[in-house]
Design a protein that fits this description.
The structure holds two protein chains of two kinds.
Chain A lengths: L4 E16 L3 E17 L4 E5 L6 H8 L7 E6 L2 E2 L4 H7 E4 L12 H11 L4 H14 L17 H12 L6 E5 L7 H18 L2 E6 L2 H7 L2 E6 L2 E6 L1 H7 L4 E8 L3 H12 L4 E5 L2 E8 L2 H14 L3 E8 L3 H13 L1
Helix pairs in contact in A: 3-4, 9-10
Chain B lengths: L1 H21 L1 H23 L4 H8 L3 H15 L1 H16 L2 H5 L5 H68 L3 H15 L10 H6 L4 H15 L4 H35 L4
Classes of the chains: A alpha/beta, B mainly alpha.
The structure holds adenosine-5'-diphosphate (ADP) and magnesium ion (MG).
Chain lengths: 332, 269
């Protein structure tokens, strides 16, 4: 089977020189990627989920042939990327940031025409395609076709950047945090199109985000990345199942003292609760294998602490729980 | 290939036109530029001697010589200025990664970047050279002005490949404006636009032979002095063309080296 993208043990170190005094300078080496490997099939959205500095942007740049890795190989559409630059560059569309990367004094339409020409699209076809994309992303309605880029809102800038990634109608699409900081309407629009492109048109999409909620709703498969290492991967469902049979008790309490409650629970149940202040009072979260067994004791403790229980639920772990679980495994 | 090139020029023209029309200061500068340069050259020239001394020494009308020189200077430096500043600007505003990733030869793109300004400068030339030539020489002056404009464009083209090499040096050095402000005066000096080459000592003159711009500029200056093209000046133009072709493979390589540097460093987003 030919994969859309196949990355094999990619390593990338950044070397930066820091000035220390007038003559001395110190070199600092950041190992952004420590030998990551992954595969992306056609027809699926693969999420690269990780916190800031995890190595997401570095990965996108390497896969798109914008950055040479120190070692490891990238295959795009079955072809070794850095040995066949023009073949690979024909196959991919890319979006690197939401907020820049266009000419401020050109309109939305002119910007797309410029990059489309650069990408080798024939004029008539290009004009049609630009029209289609301006429509698809509702940039026409927002007045973005004929407004200068410098007057765009962030949502419009992101839509235009996304449209540019689709100009060539490429089979492989690489998106680096395409909804970062966007208004919900723009974010939803982009997510919906991404899913359609993969599921209806068979495109391969690599989608980076640090937002777990987003990864869960957009991606078919998720690669969890932290500090340059892919710590786990699977469908959102699979990732949840990888946490060994844990359930989460979530109780919202009224009244009571955070510290006292924490002490009481850890001393009598031998569990470490996660407690935070929420709108309606205190939220207590407990990750545990058999929640039914301690439920009675827990209620007794709440009674002892003199708090009212506003709500109490036993839940499946969210992706956030999964992420915290795996991230801890790497950090510690 | 030619079709591809023309479409790139068209896209670049859209960019340049928008920059000029939508940025008022640039539009203003474009119109004033030839006059500013001329004032600069005249000032520099008069510090070396009087106008009549010039006429006596070179045999050319100083006013004609300087307005032509200023036009020639602007046109000759177009490729160098455009290429080094455009890619630098692209890095600054974040368009560079999207340009690098385009399956387009960067040399072809670099050449395309020069053409819009070349076209605009023909218009500037028509509005600044023609009136002066006409006043001083009446109708024959018109024809002469058109030939001078055509020769200036030709000289810019013969310099284009070496200009790409110089631009690559500026880009690879990463020094931006600082490096640009060192290389630019050097080019001006060697080109002979500021100080006619036929007045230079033989040793320096010999050194400028490998510099295509210096040859075509001398041909234009001789055209002004002798009021026509001689076999010698045609040979100079031929030499400039041959040198341009000779530098072409090097220019392609030099831009590739810059591309590779960016590949290692990672294009800024
Ligand atoms: N150009 C660079 N020079 C030096 N260090 C860099 C550079 N780009 C990224 N890094 C470092 O590499 C690591 C990964 O960065 P990045 O890939 O941008 O992460 P992410 O996109 O997940 O936030 C970070 O520690 C970051 O500081
Ligand atoms: Mg990033």
């Amino acid at each position: 089977m030919r994969y859309a993208v196949e990355a094999v043990r990619i390593v990338k170190k950044y070397v930066t020189k820091k000035r220390k005094g007038f003559f001395k300078s110190e070199t600092e080496v950041v190992e952004a990627l420590k030998g990551i490997s992954f595969k992306i099939r056609y027809g699926e959205v693969v999420g690269l989920l990780g916190p800031n500095g995890a190595g997401k942007t570095t990965t996108i740049k390497i896969v798109s042939t914008l950055l040479l890795p120190d070692s490891g190989k990238v295959f795009v559409d079955g072809v070794e990327a850095f040995k066949n630059l023009s073949y690979v560059r024909e196959k991919i569309g890319i979006m690197l940031t939401v907020e820049k990367g266009f000419f401020p004094k050109l309109t939305g339409r002119e910007n797309l025409i410029y990059f489309g020409t650069l990408y080798g699209l024939e004029r008539k076809l290009l004009e049609k395609r630009v029209n289609y994309l301006l429509d698809l992303l509702e940039l026409k309605e927002l007045g973005g076709s004929d407004k200068l880029y410098e007057e765009f809102s962030l949502g419009m800038k992101a839509r235009l950047a996304f449209a540019r990634a689709l100009l060539k109608d490429p089979p492989i699409i690489l998106l680096d945090e395409p909804t970062l900081g966007l208004d919900p309407v723009s974010a939803r629009k982009i997510r919906r199109i991404v899913k359609d492109l993969a599921h209806k048109e068979g495109k391969a999409v690599l989608y980076t985000t640090h937002n777990m909620f987003e990864a869960e709703i957009v991606c078919d498969r998720i690669l969890l990345i932290n500090k340059g290492v892919i710590v786990s991967e699977g469908t959102p469902e699979e990732l949840k199942n990888k946490i060994p049979k844990l359930k989460v008790i979530r109780a919202v309490l009224h009244g009571g003292n955070m510290e006292k409650l924490s002490k009481l629970i850890s001393s009598s149940l031998n569990l470490k609760p996660e407690i935070k202040i929420v709108e309606r009072g205190l939220e207590v979260k407990l990750a545990i294998k058999n929640p039914e067994e301690i439920l009675n004791d827990l209620l007794k403790i709440f009674n002892l602490a003199n708090v009212d229980v506003v709500s109490l639920n036993i839940e499946e772990p969210s992706l956030e729980d999964v992420f915290i679980y795996f991230a801890k495994g790497v950090i510690e | 290939m030619l079709k591809r090139f023309i479409s790139l020029v068209r896209a670049e023209y859209m960019f340049v036109a928008a920059e000029i029309i939508r940025r008022k200061t640039i539009l203003f500068a474009l119109i004033l530029w030839p006059y500013i340069i001329m004032a600069f050259i005249v000032l520099l020239g008069s510090s070396m001697g009087t106008m009549s001394y010039f006429q006596q020494k070179t045999g050319a009308n100083p006013i004609l010589f300087f307005i032509t020189g200023s036009f020639l200077l602007i046109v000759s430096l177009i490729f160098f200025d455009e290429i080094s500043s455009r890619f630098w600007y692209d890095e600054f505003i974040g368009t560079l990664p999207y340009i690098m990733i385009a399956p387009t030869s960067k040399t072809m793109l670099a050449l395309a970047m020069g053409f819009p300004r070349l076209i605009i400068n023909i218009l500037v030339g028509l509005s600044s050279l023609i009136p002066v030539y006409f006043i001083l020489k009446s109708f024959p002056g018109l024809v002469e002005a058109l030939i001078v404009i055509a020769l200036s464009i030709f000289s810019a083209l013969t310099f284009s490949t070496l200009a790409i090499i110089f631009s690559s040096l500026v880009l690879i050095s990463g020094g931006g404006w600082r490096v640009l402000s060192i290389i630019r005066p050097l080019i001006m000096l060697i080109s002979g636009v500021l100080y006619p080459r036929f007045l230079l000592p033989l040793t320096i003159k010999f050194f400028t032979i490998i510099f295509p711009l210096a040859n075509s500029v001398e041909a234009i200056q001789l055209f002004l002095v002798q009021e026509g093209l001689t076999a010698y000046s045609l040979m100079l133009l031929g030499l400039a063309t041959a040198l341009a072709l000779l530098y072409a493979p090097v220019s392609i390589r030099s831009l590739r080296i810059w591309e590779h540097r960016i590949l290692i460093k990672g294009a800024k987003t």
